[in-house]
Design a protein that fits this description.
The protein is 78% helix and 0% strand. The protein contains seven helices and no strands. Helix 3 packs antiparallel against helix 4.
Length: 166
């Protein structure tokens, strides 16, 4: 059942990312909803499922966009694994912690993607950071915060609020 759910999630996110998000950009910056979704999967299901969903989602997204395969798989798989690890080790995941973690993960993913793109001498790294990476990270963090609020208010996820008893 989980495999089917994750397959539908991956297919839906790829379709959303390739068809709808180019038209919903904010100041010509598109959010990385795949990274946000992988972090939620890692938080809710654990590090192994976050890693696997991140790897498959990174692979599928790089097939349908002009992204680097290794960078996309590494960023999304690593983000899912680290989110699962953080969700397991922390007693309480607050909205501020989630938004901060998404901000850091998105900036790290942008830096890995920038490094994989091998910018030329004429391209300014600081300009890329100021105009693309940091605004996209802020947008990802806002979307993650809204998603956290919606999930917690609708489903009262105890896994994110307190540590489960054995």
């Amino acid at each position: 059942m989980r495999v089917l759910l994750y397959s539908v999630l991956i297919a839906g996110l790829v379709v959303l990312h390739t068809t709808l998000l180019p038209h919903l950009s904010v100041w010509n910056i598109k959010p990385d909803v795949g990274l946000v979704a992988v972090c939620f999967v890692g938080l809710l299901a654990g590090e192994l499922e976050g890693l696997l969903v991140g790897l498959f989602l990174g692979w599928a997204m790089s097939l349908f966009s002009a992204g680097d395969l290794a960078a996309s798989m590494t960023v999304k798989g690593g983000a899912g694994f680290l989110a699962g690890l953080a969700g397991r080790q922390m007693a309480q995941v607050t909205p501020i912690l989630l938004v901060s973690g998404l901000l850091v993960a998105s900036i790290g993913g942008g830096l890995v993607t920038m490094w994989a793109a091998k910018l030329s001498e004429q391209q300014n790294i600081w300009w890329v950071l100021q105009t693309i990476i940091v605004p996209q990270a802020c947008l990802d963090a806002v979307i993650g915060g809204i998603g956290y609020w919606l999930l917690w208010s609708r489903f009262h996820l105890d896994r994110l609020a307190t540590e489960q008893e054995l």
